[in-house]
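Lay summary. Proteins are chains of building blocks that fold into shapes, and those shapes determine what they do. In this project we predict the shape from the chain. Here is one chain we studied, written as its sequence of building blocks.
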Amino acid sequence: MQFSRLSFVSGFFVILLFLSGAAFAADVIVLKSGRTITGKILTRSDKTLEVEMTVGKSTATITIQVSDIDRIEKGENKDVEFRKRWSALKSNDLPGHEALLKWCEDNSLSIQAAQVRKKIDSVKLVLLKEKYPDLWCRPCEAGGKLSCQGCEGKGVKVDPCQRCAGSGEIGCRACSRKKQGSLDCRRCGGAGVYERFDPSKGRKVKTRCSTCSGKGKIECPTCSGKQKSKCEDCKGEGGKKVSCGTCDGQRHSYCKLCEGSGVKGNPEKKALPKPGKPKGNTEEDGKSDEKPKKKPVIKKNPFG
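And here is the predicted shape, written in a compact code that computers can read:
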């Protein structure tokens, strides 16, 4: 029977679908044996049923005998449901977008949730500008934040390496003073030819060097002719990353004109949010977060 040959494959895909936790929730086919298959029905005839199963970016199509099917439960893709809810919302409906965000989080739709969060931020700005048409802060575009000028919004600065002066590269010791990053061929001494004894002629004859193809020069094996190599002190990064002292690694600073509220004078008297410590921005932060492991202390001899 055709289904028996594919029972193992279908069961494997069902397990992967369950473990992946993806947003895909399509038709559920319940077989007479009690097994369930989740997928999208492509075609259906009097005898067979073709079902498309999706696991991540991979898809597979299986054929099931209609006589082996007990019932079919119609499902719906959560992404389709999200698009319906998204299109039904008005552009400035803040409570509706917040409710949609909660729905996305409850259904583990992380990508869609990020899209809704971005939309919520833009809706808040629009509503704020409508509420204070003459007072909303122009320098920060009513966002209350300005990109840090000290680190250009990166949150970190690079302490230049003393060896390479922040370039991450140093001149190749072998060929930095040579022309075009090439070295003299060791076999022919840079002549392009070398002498060898020809027994048929009974004397030495000049032979074209096969190592350098008669050019007399070879590419530097250290830097591949680039005349530069990666700095070993900074591993080619140009220096050590340190947290920006201007913004404390936050990548931005609060607008002083509106006190971070987005409105001049801060009429609603909004308090500035407490700055949180950025994680993983610098090498020092990563090391400081790690707690030292304590060695076990043996008070008594376990062997008596």
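What the prediction tells us: Residues 58 and 181 are 48 Å apart (CA to CA).
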